[in-house]
Design goal:
The protein is α/β, with parallel strands linked by helices. It has helices at residues 8-28, 38-46, 48-57, 62-78, 91-96, 126-143, 165-178, 196-205, 208-211, 269-292, and strands spanning 99-104, 110-115, 149-154, 183-189, 214-217, 257-258, 261-262. The chain has ten helices and seven strands. The N and C termini lie far apart (59 Å). Residues 271-282 have a biased composition (Basic and acidic residues).
């Protein structure tokens, strides 16, 4: 039996990966080896899948892929992404429950939730909040390399005060530039009509590869993309999951696990109910604090 010979497309891809690396070294690294984080440079030099992701996301155009790599690696060094950890993020951000990973869509993609009503504008903490989003993306990329995410913007009870265009643009760039081939779809649920103009601007920032992934859905329509078992009750779902911190949801160290988080035994069911009541009180307190002290609100 004849040995498997690479398909012409595979050969072309291999050539383009080689070309990317040669030009990366000769053009992007020629002025300074300190331009990027050395750990990211090493990944470009060694991980074919990563270079392929940039090429795929830029329709196999080498020049465009190189530009994306440059922007992505500059951003990673500027924000110190390789050193972002749970310990470097302010605790209150985790406690807010404004952003988290939980559940799956109907295609099996992990859901990345943005609870828009919990976001308020604050320039003082914008850098930390951007790092916080990157923390979740990095965490997922390491746990599930090569697996895409579905972003869900839950806009229930949100308004114009919860929208900050600069931050929205940053979130879009995370998938458009910084994390290639990472976006399965972006679902905007229950968008108030008053935000139509803002989202028209946002759509203009998306490239053609991302526009096709943008889905607007009502409470009823979101079930087309996400099953009831992975939707919260306020969206017509049956998922009993309620975000709490600590620990982070869906962590490997939380055992035993069920689909909706750690399984509680009968003995601690009563105490769990007490925790939920306390959590409700904390959430109410947090939201009140957002109004009283904008500096602790979430930027959207």
């Amino acid at each position: 039996m004849a040995e498997h010979e690479p398909h012409q497309g595979e050969q072309d891809l291999e050539k383009k990966i080689v070309e990317i690396r040669q030009r990366f070294k000769n053009e992007l690294l020629k002025d300074s080896t300190d331009k990027y984080d050395s750990r990211d440079v090493e990944r470009i030099e060694q991980e074919d899948a990563l270079v392929e992701a940039y090429l795929t996301w830029r329709m196999y155009v080498v020049d465009d892929a190189l530009k994306m790599i440059d922007e992505s690696l500059l951003w990673r060094k500027e924000f110190g992404i390789n050193d972002v950890s749970e310990g470097t993020i302010p605790r209150w951000m985790f406690e807010s429950g404004a952003v988290f990973l939980h559940g799956y869509d109907r295609e099996g993609n992990k859901l990345f939730w943005f609870k828009v009503k919990l976001h308020t504008k604050d320039a003082k903490t914008v850098v930390d909040k951007k790092k916080y989003v990157a923390f979740w993306l990095e965490r997922y990329a390491k746990k599930e390399p090569g697996m895409p995410l579905t972003v869900v913007f839950d806009m229930t009870e949100s308004g114009l005060s919860n929208i900050d265009m600069d931050f929205v643009k940053y979130v879009i760039n995370c998938f458009k530039v910084y994390y290639p081939k990472f976006l399965s779809k972006m679902i905007i649920v229950e968008m108030p009509w008053i935000m139509n103009a803002a989202w028209k601007i946002i759509k203009s920032w998306l490239g053609p590869e991302a526009i096709a992934k943008l889905k607007f859905a009502t409470k009823a329509e979101v079930h087309t993309y996400i099953g009831a078992e992975h939707l919260p009750p306020h969206l017509g779902g049956s998922d009993p999951f309620k975000y709490t911190y600590p620990p982070l949801p869906d962590d490997d160290f939380q055992t035993p696990l069920c689909e909706n988080g750690p399984m509680a035994g009968e003995d601690d069911a009563e105490s769990k109910e007490g925790e939920m009541e306390s959590r409700d009180t904390l959430e109410s307190s947090f939201n009140s604090e957002i109004v009283a002290k904008p500096k602790k609100g979430w930027l959207w």
